[in-house]
Amino acid sequence: QVQVVESGGGSVQAGGSLSLSCAVSGHTICATPLAWYRQYPGDERKWVASFIGPNKYYADFVEGRFIISRDLFNNTLSLQMNTLKPDDTAVYYCHADGAQYDGCEPDYWGRGTQVTVSS
């Protein structure tokens, strides 16, 4: 069994910073966390940032404010969010790619962590 767990969400004023982390537990060989998504209430989940190979990619709305990073040894993923805006208020989810081994799923999602930015 694999669990993907996000942490680091919270409340901050506009202009502030938060750092999100994502860790995998259980059958960790199955899951590699590579991307962050976010979701507004009643809306679809939207991509924020991800790794493809060694390269980092960001959604346009990030505008240079976020930094995605990963710790290959510990199989963790982070998202440093700076200059936060009220529009960044959402639940942030970590997405992990599934490995092609028996018993592994195609991908995995965490349960999300709430980020609230007040004006």
Notes on the structure:
This protein has strands spanning 2-7, 10-13, 18-26, 31-39, 46-52, 55-58, 66-71, 76-81, 90-98, 107-109, 113-118. By secondary structure, it is mainly β. A hairpin with a 4-residue loop joins strand 7 and strand 8 (76-81). It is globular, with a radius of gyration of 14 Å. The N and C termini lie far apart (40 Å).
| Main beta sheet strand tally, sense and closure | 7 strands, mixed
Q: What's the overall geometry?
A: globular
How do the helices and strands follow one another from N- to C-terminus? EEEEEEEEEEE
Radius of gyration: 14 Å
Summary tags:
119 residues, mainly beta, seven-stranded mixed β-sheet, four-stranded antiparallel β-sheet
Task: Describe the structure concisely for a colleague.
This protein has 119 residues and is mainly β. It is 0% helix and 58% strand.
Topology:
Elements: E1 2-7, E2 10-13, E3 18-26, E4 31-39, E5 46-52, E6 55-58, E7 66-71, E8 76-81, E9 90-98, E10 107-109, E11 113-118
Parallel strand pairs: 2-11
Antiparallel strand pairs: 1-3, 3-8, 4-5, 4-9, 5-6, 7-8, 9-10, 9-11
